[in-house]
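Researcher: I'd like a candidate sequence for this fold, 252 residues long. If you have to choose between options at a position, lean toward the conservative one.
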C-alpha cells in the first residue's frame, strides 16, 4: 500500500473544485481501518499546504473503483458539491474512458443493457431485458486498435451504474485486462490495477457554469500507442451533438 500513498497529480484546482489524476490501487473513500483513502490523503495534503487550522472540506461527487485510474473531480465547497451532484443527475458531465480489453473487438456503436447489482458478491450482473431490480445501462463505444495482447477501446457511459463498463465488456467476451473479478486471465500490477482509465472529463463549472475540459495522462502500464490520440479527438468531435442532447434519453 505504501507505493500508492503519494499525492496524485493535480490536473486543476481553484477555490471551488479540485481535479486529480487518481492512481490505480488507491480507494477513493471509505478505506478500512488503518488504510488510507484518496480523500484522506488529499485532505491532509491541503491542510498542511495551506496551513489550515481547522478541518478541510473536500467532497467526493463521483467515484472510480479502487483498481481504476484517471480524472476525478472533488468539491471544495458545499455549494459546489451540491451543484456538481446536480450536474451528474442532469447528465451534464461527460466521462470518457480508455480500456485495454482481452480478445479482439471492432467497430463502434451503442450498447444498451440492464444491470443488477449483487450486494453480497459486490458484482454486477447483466440482463438483456428489464427485470426486477434491474437498471438500464447505456454505453457508447469506439474501438481504436489492437496490439498483440489487447484491443484498445473508448467507452463513454451515458449512465453511471456500478461496474457498468467492467461487466458489459466481460459479458461480451472481452473482459478488461487485469479485471480478474470479471474473468480476465492475468493480473496488472499484482492485482492493484486494471486497464481502465478515465481519460477525459467535461462539465460546467459549478459556480460560473463555464464549460471545462480536462485530460488525465494515460498510465505507463497501458503501453498505449500515442499515435492513436488523434482518433480519440475525432471520436469526441463526432459525437458532440449527441452529447449535447444526452439528457433527453429515457433511462428508466
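Model: Candidate sequence:
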Amino acid at each position: 500500500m505504501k507505493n500508492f500513498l503519494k499525492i496524485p497529480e493535480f490536473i486543476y484546482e481553484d477555490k471551488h473544485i479540485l481535479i486529480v489524476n487518481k492512481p490505480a490501487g488507491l480507494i477513493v473513500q471509505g478505506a478500512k481501518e488503518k488504510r488510507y483513502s484518496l480523500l484522506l490523503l488529499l485532505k491532509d495534503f491541503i491542510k498542511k499546504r495551506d496551513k489550515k487550522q481547522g478541518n478541510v472540506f473536500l467532497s467526493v461527487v463521483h467515484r472510480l473503483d479502487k483498481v481504476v485510474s484517471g480524472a476525478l473531480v472533488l468539491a471544495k465547497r458545499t455549494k459546489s458539491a451540491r451543484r456538481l451532484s446536480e450536474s451528474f443527475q442532469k447528465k451534464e458531465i461527460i466521462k470518457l474512458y480508455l480500456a485495454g480489453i482481452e480478445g479482439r473487438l471492432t467497430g463502434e456503436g451503442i450498447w444498451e443493457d440492464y444491470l443488477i447489482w449483487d450486494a453480497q458478491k459486490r458484482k454486477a450482473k447483466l440482463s438483456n431485458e428489464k427485470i426486477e431490480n434491474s437498471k438500464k445501462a447505456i454505453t457508447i463505444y469506439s474501438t481504436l486498435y489492437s496490439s498483440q495482447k489487447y484491443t484498445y477501446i473508448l467507452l463513454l457511459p451515458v449512465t453511471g451504474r456500478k461496474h457498468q463498463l467492467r461487466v458489459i465488456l466481460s459479458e461480451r467476451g472481452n473482459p478488461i485486462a487485469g479485471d480478474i473479478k470479471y474473468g480476465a486471465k492475468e493480473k496488472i500490477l499484482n492485482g492493484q490495477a486494471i486497464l481502465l482509465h478515465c481519460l477525459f472529463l467535461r462539465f460546467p463549472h459549478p459556480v460560473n457554469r463555464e464549460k471545462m475540459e480536462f485530460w488525465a495522462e494515460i498510465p505507463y502500464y497501458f503501453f498505449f500507442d500515442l499515435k492513436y490520440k488523434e482518433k480519440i479527438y475525432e471520436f469526441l468531435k463526432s459525437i458532440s451533438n449527441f452529447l449535447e442532447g444526452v439528457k433527453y434519453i429515457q433511462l428508466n
